[in-house]
Every structure is written in C-alpha cells, then in structure tokens.
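Review form for a predicted model. The reviewer records the input and the model, then writes brief findings.
Reviewer: anonymous (R2)
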Amino acid sequence: MKEADQYHRFVRWSDDDHLYIGYCPDLYYGGVCHGENEEQVYAELCGIIRDEIEHRQQKGEALPLPVVRVTRDVEMFAA
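Model under review:
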C-alpha cells in the first residue's frame, strides 16, 4: 500500500460557500482545497496529500497515524 492510501480523504459540497471542499482529517484540520467541480477537487486533494507526505518524509518527520474513519468522524471534520 502506498503511504497516501492509508489516509481517508473526502470531498463534500458546502452550501455556505457554494463549492466542493476537499478534506483529509488525519493530515489537516478543515478543508484544504475547493472548487466547482467535485472530481477536480478530489484530484487536487490527492496531489496535496502526496506532496505533504513527501515533504514530511524529506524532513525526516514521522507521519501521523491514520485514525479517522468515515462512519465516525466525517461530520466532525467537515463542520
């Protein structure tokens, strides 16, 4: 499994912003990208996650353990 594959990511529509917002709660608190097209936001989010993992590894930092699970935590991080 690739490092990035262990982290849950999701995209959801924001009625307040009228945009899709991308989230990866194990790496970031809150949304990290947004746009009008759901698929483009998801692709951007995947790239951001890969870049963050590479950046942390190059600095010798440990990656956080993936703990967020869809059935339990998604609503909390998207609020």
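Findings: The chain has two helices and three strands.
Further findings: The first strand starts at residue 10 and ends at 14.
Recommendation: see findings above.
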